[in-house]
Amino acid sequence: MSHTFYIAMSYAVASLVTLCLIGWVWLDGRARQRELAELEAAGIRRRSAQPKTPEASKA
């Protein structure tokens, strides 16, 4: 096994792992966005969301 082969395989493995992690994070983000959309469609809101009624903002 030559040094060139070892170095090339190291870069290939590192690139593959990096691409897999990027894909995983991207797919997971899409899944979380879908879940948030479903929750908001069901009427569930975040606690940090500002109330839309003027009476609630006075409290």
Automatic annotation (TrEMBL):
It is a single-pass membrane protein. The keyword NADP does not apply. Its main location: membrane. It holds the Pfam family CcmD. The keyword GTP-binding does not apply. It comes from the Bacteria. Keywords: Cell inner membrane, Cell membrane, Cytochrome c-type biogenesis, Membrane, Transmembrane, Transmembrane helix, Transport. It is found in: Cell inner membrane. InterPro entries: Haem_export_protD_CcmD. The chain crosses the membrane at residues 6-27. Belongs to the CcmD/CycX/HelD family. Required for the export of heme to the periplasm for the biogenesis of c-type cytochromes. This is Heme exporter protein D.
